[in-house]
């Protein structure tokens, strides 16, 4: 339950991204600067935090030993996650981007077979592919249905270009974020905490953001003072606070696919926060009808995930032979 609470708090700060990105686009700011500035601000902030906690050296040492791993998954987890999100904000409203982004709760479950776990066998330990948690997938799809209901209210106002350019880039981001996060969890294997991992991934993704910033400079010149300030707020709220909280929650849930799916599902609350934020700050219409039903479905789904993950934790230990059989079958008692 604590991990889910942390995830919900993170989703509140993540929602700032969708609201301010849309605000910057409406003010004429380039998505290239909106995306790259966030990570230029994040890098020194996170470096100072980790340095103050006196554990920056392990990050540097691991990055020097495994530069390809850090650059690859830092770019996937942060670069291919945030650049498409800000690009989509240029073509679709914040609620559309926030809603489509919730596909990540299903993506996280579907990515499970790309990772392995160690089990005990009569001949010793062996690594096997993690199964797809069917129950977690069903609950995540239930939450996604709630997200669709929220979008249904305003979907009729969208043009075809808004649908295509505002949806497909977000689908790329929805898979890239959990993939990069989980790959780095697997690589760090408990050696680095959430602050260290976020700091390392941010620094490893900087070459990608330098290229993006160069493109922004060539196409639209320097960013405005307003866009710079809003990018700084996004960096603090979403980049530092939300990302660190989310990584802490996923760290606590690692090794338990159902619990990890529940934590990732808390991101669906971003839609609610984004809708409220756009109503308050961008004067969008209040949700009604099916949108209210969708909000209720999301809340029920998050509570359902919380119940299932708690039930899994409290489940009594199984006999070793039964546990081994279930691990091999990928089933449940």
Automatic annotation (TrEMBL):
Q: What is this protein called?
A: Multidrug resistance efflux transporter family protein
Q: Which UniProt keywords apply?
A: Membrane, Transmembrane, Transmembrane helix
Which residue ranges does UniProt annotate as crossing the membrane? 37-56, 68-89, 95-115, 136-152, 158-177, 198-217, 229-249, 261-283, 289-307
Q: Which organism is it from?
A: Geobacillus subterraneus
């Amino acid at each position: 339950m604590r991990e889910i609470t942390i995830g919900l708090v993170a989703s509140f700060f993540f929602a700032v991204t969708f609201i301010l990105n849309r605000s910057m686009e409406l003010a004429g700011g380039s998505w290239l600067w909106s995306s790259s500035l966030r990570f230029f601000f994040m890098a020194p902030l996170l470096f100072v935090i980790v340095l103050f906690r006196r554990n920056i050296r392990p990050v540097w040492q691991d990055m020097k030993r495994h530069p390809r791993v850090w650059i690859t998954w830092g770019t996937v987890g942060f670069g291919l996650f945030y650049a498409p999100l800000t690009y989509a904000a240029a073509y679709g409203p914040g609620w559309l981007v926030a809603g489509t982004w919730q596909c990540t709760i299903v993506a996280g479950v579907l990515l499970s077979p790309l990772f392995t776990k160690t089990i005990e066998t009569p001949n010793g330990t062996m690594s096997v592919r993690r199964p797809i948690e069917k129950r977690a997938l069903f609950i995540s799809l239930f939450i996604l249905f709630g997200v669709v209901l929220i979008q249904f209210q305003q979907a009729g106002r969208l043009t075809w270009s808004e649908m295509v350019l505002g949806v497909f880039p977000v689908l790329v981001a929805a898979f890239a974020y959990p993939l990069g996060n989980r790959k780095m969890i697997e690589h760090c294997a408990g050696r680095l905490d959430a602050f260290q991992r976020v700091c390392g991934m941010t620094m490893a993704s900087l070459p990608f953001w330098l290229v993006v910033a160069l493109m922004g400079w060539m196409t639209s010149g320097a960013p405005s003072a307003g866009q710079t300030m809003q990018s700084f707020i996004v960096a603090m709220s979403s980049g530092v606070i939300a990302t660190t909280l989310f990584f802490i929650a996923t760290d606590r849930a690692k090794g338990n696919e159902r619990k990890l799916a529940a934590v990732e599902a808390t991101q669906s609350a971003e839609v609610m926060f984004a809708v409220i934020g756009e109503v308050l700050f961008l004067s969008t219409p209040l949700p009604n009808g099916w949108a209210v039903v969708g909000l209720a479905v999301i809340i029920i789904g998050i509570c359902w995930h919380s119940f299932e993950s708690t039930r899994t934790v409290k489940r009594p230990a199984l006999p070793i032979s039964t546990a081994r059989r279930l691990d091999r079958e990928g089933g449940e008692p």
